[in-house]
Hints:
279 residues, alpha/beta, Purple Acid Phosphatase, chain A, domain 2, 7-stranded mixed β-sheet, 6-stranded mixed β-sheet, 27% strand
Amino acid sequence: xxxxxxxxxxxxxxxxxxxxxxxxxxxxxxxxxxxxxxxxxxxxxxxxxxxxxxxxxxxxxxxxxxxxxxxxxxxxxxxxxxxxxxxxxxxxxxxxxxxxxxxxxxxxxxxxxxxxxxxxxxxxxxxxxxxxxxxxxxxxxxxxxxxxxxxxxxxxxxxxxxxxxxxxxxxxxxxxxxxxxxxxxxxxxxxxxxxxxxxxxxxxxxxxxxxxxxxxxxxxxxxxxxxxxxxxxxxxxxxxxxxxxxxxxxxxxxxxxxxxxxxxxxxxxxxxxxxxxxx
Length: 279
């Protein structure tokens, strides 16, 4: 039996998250015999959005495909990049007039592997098409290309994530959730052969609130007044995600395993510039 292992890493938050990815990605690939790396980068630039420079940074340090979500439009300089490249995805159920694509097929050790990016609708501000129907449309095309298909579902609620996982069970190799930045402990293979985890987590400050400084967020909860959220750049830091092993012939998942790295050596990372372009 021929197999592939694909590593999925949760939302990279700001400079500290990028430092964790840079430091640990190669080690993870070697430790778990990883064949491809998919990372969510929508918070890479100062906690909100991503720039072309940061796409190149993540690619240089091991990412094969970068997925995103609701913050993809935060940095206008990314619009042109999306229109010209397919290694950075935006959710496929955004309006068709948006630049970029929500799916890509990459070659991994001689096998075609499809990566799909979708966004949920429950408690999300963006008005996007139904992710379930969008998945059906994409699979009509992708199933003729490869049996190995993975979905990054960028959504707020566990119920919507579980719903689309069950809906796609047996039709895709894996569904991994992103967006909430909190790694869940529910990884498993569903009855029809699809690997699933509700949320991959993040790369960022351990003692933060989803990668952001906790004090303004707590103040917002106390007063109900708006606050400016800032990326927490103080270590220690974590990097979390999961890897999935699949049968290359059937596309069925054989194994899924969570990963979590705590790095106490990283204590302080320089704050991003206003454009979010500093490394």
